[in-house]
Amino acid sequence: MTTWCTASDVFGLTGIQVDDDVVAQAGAHIDVACARPYSVFVTGLAQGAICQISTMDLYWLKLACIYQAAWIPSQPDLFVRSDVTAVGRGKANVQFTPTGMTLAPLARVTLDRVSWLKSRSLHVPGPE
Questions:
Q1: What span, in angstroms and rounded, lies between the C-alpha atoms of 52 and 128?
Q2: pLDDT (tens digit, 9 = 90+) per residue, 100-114?
Q3: In 1-128, which ranges are continuous DSSP H helix?
């Protein structure tokens, strides 16, 4: 596993078939959104670091990655679209949330449950 979930996790929960490249893209999106890169997390554990992410946070990050991976295939212009605050046509306007064009709706809801994103605090280990 190179990120928070696997392609089989995505299929098992959503029924949407994705490949490892899409899962890697989703993982990178979740890394940016949660400010806790999976690659640093794994490297730290490989070097004997103590896991600073709770089991519950790991669960929410896995779900967020699953939802993001399922959402990406339906977003063909995800990596080339412009960031907009409103789209209008006639009298109809659409306004997106700050992450509305880059993050799956269920991934955003799930990330809102991650402890350090909820409280806006980050656990800093004390001196050894």
A1: 15
A2: 566 777 777 777 777
A3: 7-14, 20-34, 38-46, 55-71, 105-111, 115-118
